[in-house]
Amino acid sequence: MQKRRYFIRNMNAGTFLEIFMVSAVASILAIRAYLVIADYPQLGNSDLHIAHMLWGGVFMLVGIISLSMFLGKSAQYVGVICGGIGFGTFIDEVGKFITQDNDYFYQPSVSIIYVTFMVIFLAARNIQTRARYSRLEYLMNAIHELEEVAQSDLDKEEKEKVAGYLAECDQNDPLVSELKGALSKIELVPVPEQGYYVRLRTRLATFYRNIATTNWFKWVIIAFFGAQVAFNLFYVFVLVTLKLLSWDVLNVGIIESLAGELEKITFSDYAYLTSSLFAAGLALWGLTLFIKSRLRAFQMFERSVMVSLFLTQVFIFFQAQFWGLAGLIIYLLVYVALRYIIARERLAGVDKQV
Model pTM greater than 0.85? Predict the structure, then answer.
């Protein structure tokens, strides 16, 4: 007798996670922008202050009810979007609830928000990829996709997906045979037009992939990491070597300004500097490897970006608050480009001297 499993992974979880994260981040940015434009208005009176965290709770409640009381993909999308908006609205006020004076502008708040999202992403990815999908999971996902049949809403792409799931199931299972037979007799509907979000994402992804997979773009990536290494080495030279050795003869202009920063450097500055040096070291290692192996070099660049995303960006958000989004976007674009480039290098079997 097969042991009962209580948690069956959803193979569409990646899409739902993306929508959740986008909704949550968009809600935080929209709230912050509105508060700045409206000069931080308050809803309430002399006795009451209705924090927007409560509206986050309302959205999360709507999401939970949608997922609990209704079936079908429409309810799932509504639940995930509302849940994302609600969670973003909720965690935007984290500073109020971890400080004694309810400080909404508590400086580490943005870093805490960023770390929270990173933990959610990593945990979800670990659940999704920690092991191969079992035959039972393929079967359950196939049955889940076939819910569209009841609404006469199964199209060609969805049928091919279900057929692929069933091909991975136990072929001796009578239920699998019945589902295959039923699937072959189902009348399909035309593939629906993609929504605006999906069309925009697809176009942007295609545009960026076309750029990222060109030969000249590889040299842009190399130049990017070369500049990163040069900047970090220069920064360390000025902040540490010149100041500690009192080489005043060079304390002019930008060097004098940077050297003066050492006097007021904080723990977050040291942490930022350490993580930046670590990332720069990996990038420098990648530059040296490029002569022998392009694949290994790009893999080392990827590790450098991961250090920047998971360590350096935390301290950038601490220091620069939401202005750190600019650097985050750049590193995410570089990471995606590296994934494309590494995939092409592997596919072509290129691991040789250039």
Answer: no
